[in-house]
Amino acid sequence: MTEQSSNSWVGRRGLLGGALAGATLAAGNTWSATLAQAAPGPVGCPRPRLYTREQWRAVPPQDPAGVKVEPFRPALVVIHHMDYPNSTDYSLEHAFQLSRDCQYDHMHNNGWNDIGQQLTLSRGGFLMEGRYRSAEAVHHGKQVIGAQVANWNTVSIGIENEGTYTTELPPEAQWRALVATCAWLCRVYGLSPMTAIVGHRDLNQPGTPLATECPGNALYKRLPALRAEVARSLHLPVGDGSPNHVAEDLPAPKSSGVRDHGPATGPLDPTR
What pTM does this model have? Predict the structure, then answer.
């Protein structure tokens, strides 16, 4: 992730209002981040097990008091790819190392208070807590302000998917975990999957100073299917579906040797 300047979202303007107006699910749930086994969820969509920061051995934020926990729900669930290698190590220990590496990068190279995203999903399908207090906040229907999409961090929660999905798709285990994670978040926060689940490029759009290709062309093309699968798992209507609203085939970013999945913070964001 890299820090960039401001942006005005010019497409899909009704998305935020639709996500709020379309909230039809009851907030709150009985999930616990420390359960040894995933608790049953809706048919075909078990609640995901979430591995906590203590379990993947996170270091504390530089300023724990600087992590903002707001008493409101996010309106958007933002799907990212991490622009990391597509590892074939699907183990839990690899997933934990992924989170530690990402936290180090964000704190020491980006200069942020902590890891940027609220949730991290490995290619092996392991879901991990990201920013400090994220598990607690989701459990209580609140919002930890992260650093994952420029100028939209206050109203969104970010899922970082290990890998680069410009031409490849996530492995089946990661995809199934992504469906379950989105369903869990929509259930807890009372969001409509058909309007709340977006890609990073939906918010930092092509043709703007903050443009990004994230979450990769291949994964972005699968977001309509993701929305529909999540909605069906929650027994919600799908209708004619929810197509993407920005370009699906963007040119791959020029390689600079620096990992960059798009702008994560902007001047309108309250934290880093």
Answer: 0.85
